[in-house]
Amino acid sequence: MLELLEELEPGVKKVFQDHVHMNELTALSINGARGQALALTNHYLYLIFKGFFKSRCQKISPRELAGVEVRGKTLEVRLAGAMTPVSMEFAPVKAGLLPSAAERIREWQQQKAL
């Protein structure tokens, strides 16, 4: 399971650290393609997008999460009430990690629902 806990790229890591609370423990982190990353803590799922001029970090609670799907090298995160999923691309060499990551996110959501 350690392959699902990568050191985030410096720019992405800075965006993540600006949004995560110091008492959260990171359980999963994977660098995506082109300044994107996924991080799962004991409280929230974070989708991080580092841009040249603008960056964003989407913080998702277990109640907001409607589903997670893997489509090739893309992870799609569906949010409750949203029409379209948030898509995150990963390098082809990381595509094999995505099913395990999606399963870990689903387990996290189920644990938080109890």
Determine the strand fraction and express it as a percent band.
25-35%
The CATH superfamily is identified as Pleckstrin-homology domain (PH domain)/Phosphotyrosine-binding domain (PTB)
Whole-number tally of structural domains: 1
Low-confidence stretches: none
The tally of helices reads 2
Overall pLDDT score:
93
CATH class: Mainly Beta
Distance between the termini: 24 Å
Overall body shape:
globular
For the secondary structure, the number of strands is 7
What is the radius of gyration? 13 Å
SSE class: alpha+beta
Largest sheet: 4 strands, antiparallel
SSE order, as H and E?
HEEEEEEEH
Overall helicity = 10-25%
Q: What CATH architecture do you see?
A: Roll
Per the CATH scheme, the topology name is PH-domain like
Strand arrangement in the largest pleated sheet = 1-2-3-4
